[in-house]
Amino acid sequence: MSVRVLIVVTHLLGAGHLTRSAALARAFAQAGHATTLVSGGSSAQPAPLDGIAFVQLPPVRILGTDFKTLLDEDGAPVHNFRLAERRILLLDTLRTFRPDIVITELFPFGRRVLAGEFMTLLKDARSLDPRPRILCSIRDILAAPSKPERIEETHARILENYDAVLVHGDPQVVPLEATWPVDERIRPLIRYTGYVDENPEPLEQEGREGILVSGGSSAASLPLYRAAVAAAREIADRPWRILIGRGVSEADFAALRDGAPPHVTVERARPDFRRLLARAELSISQAGYNTAVDLLRSRAKAVLVPFEAGHETEQRLRAERLEALGLAEIVPEADLTPQRLAEAVRHGLSRQGSPPPLVALGGARESVAVAESLGLARPALHGRIDWSPVDQALDRAGDRGGAIRFWWRDDDAVADTPQLDRLLALSRRVQAGVALAVIPRELEPSLGDRLRSDGSAFALVHGWAHANHAPAGEKKAEFGSHRPLDTMAAEAEQALQIARGKLGRRLLPVFVPPWNRVSPELAQRLPQAGFTGLSAFNDRKAVSPAEGLLQVNAHVDPIDWHGTRSLVDPEQIIASLAAAIDRRALDETDREEPIGLLTHHLIHDDVIWTFCEKLMVHLAARQIPILRPDEVFSMRNRITALA
């Protein structure tokens, strides 16, 4: 089954963003998906685009590194009329193409100057029926804003609009956290794809000779070209080839060509660059994304002069990571002189080659796989859901005189968000209380304000920071058996105190371990830390793991965590519900524990929301109570459980 994919990109400086997006478009088209690529940057259609629809918006660009001022082709400030024309064409493309998947390149992590355009696109995309999956496509390294409110704005836009964030990199080289403050709300949406290679064809590793200089498509590499021409005069025992990007003017190109010594060839950038790189003894270049991919693929020795104008840090960090892997020498842009460059070239030529690291380079193919898992595996909920297994289990329980009760736990809350609005609106509509497992370290004042105004929602303590401390290869846990017991007990007590200080009476002293894993030894210590309740997942092994502590777990989770991250097959969820009901009708141990429904409002897509709403409405129609959290963990229930 094929889907329709819309990719939207606006490149403002170099062509790297467009190049990467075009590589994604080709991968989708080659996989049999109808693909449209919309470009809002300079008028330059990447080739080849066989089988791909290409839409060019009225172009915009910037001068230097001034990302706040948009210019037209003639260098004049962009008028609002042009921005309106762009939005009209973009929305017409959306409505005509009606994609199943929408991918925005960089936004909302960047391109804030075009936020109005992108947000209009997202709003219209979300209004389509069926709603398309919405993905963000970002490179390995980002430029995080200096203002915390802008970071929070980005996270809010991700949580409200996006189903996944495709990170086109390898965390072994550069994890996203190195340049962007990833928090626990967006972490579940992040999918590393590996680096996107615009030309994944294998290269013949032929005999290497000479030095190849390249600098991307913009004029920002002029200082590098000039230094290379001068450095070549000091190293005349090898041929040099300097490839000049199309963004360099004819006058500057001619000056470089005419001033080069005889053993140096100066020419415009060539389509066979990768083949030339595979034959070169050493490469001199900047450290852009596509350059890094080229070097990793060709295994060429490299001298990198990262672009650092305008306080840019992206290329310097990437260059440092490649240097740490033994793949490059670095000449800082501020230190660039012909003599310094020649010194680095000599050192690079003398350096012994080392086996290349195993870095993921199949980013385009993996991006298609992620998008397919989201777009093709989405369960359909347009028809009636067969609730008969649940109804029959409820009838059997009624025949045995059992009173089936439910409770509702929702994990990872930290702030008042649009998703929380939707959760609490559903709670009010079906008259069901909800327990919000909050992350104490990340708590924002807005959540306390919201809980104080909503009588049906209470908070539980969801660990401390939702940080994984398990060794590599083991299941994730913040409070497993991987740290000293005293350390974990003190951290749990601190979490309770801080959450209580921020949430007051809306907090129940109930511990919810992240990833639902807690060491038995820590469970024994929880009452000393001030907790009276514990909630994990699946059937509990004991009503009370410690004196004074009541355990009430969650049992049914609708999210397919290890697959699509959308809805588990509804039949599977319904079967789990029916089995939980039957256990309470037949087993005295389980009878007093209400069945726990577990949700994660921050990452629900429309399919999960729809199922949860239908489930709540169905239980309400059957007059099955969903208990308030304070009732679930009340003293009366504790006494009953311990009797």
Question: Explain this structure to me?
Answer:
By secondary structure, the chain is an alpha/beta fold. The protein folds into three domains: 4-200 and 364-372, Glycogen Phosphorylase B (Rossmann fold), CATH 3.40.50.2000; 211-350, 3-Layer(aba) Sandwich (Rossmann fold), CATH 3.40.50; 387-642, Glycoside hydrolase/deacetylase (TIM Barrel, Alpha-Beta Barrel). It has 21 helices and 20 strands. Strands 3-2-1-4-5-6-7 form a seven-stranded parallel beta sheet, sandwiched between helices. Strands 19-18-17-16-15-14-20 form a seven-stranded parallel beta sheet. Strands 10-9-8-11-12-13 form a six-stranded parallel beta sheet. Strand 14, helix 13 and strand 15 form a beta-alpha-beta unit. Helix 1 crosses helix 11 (363-375), helix 2 runs parallel beside helix 3 (115-127) and helix 5 packs across helix 10. It is elongated. The protein starts with a strand and ends with a helix.
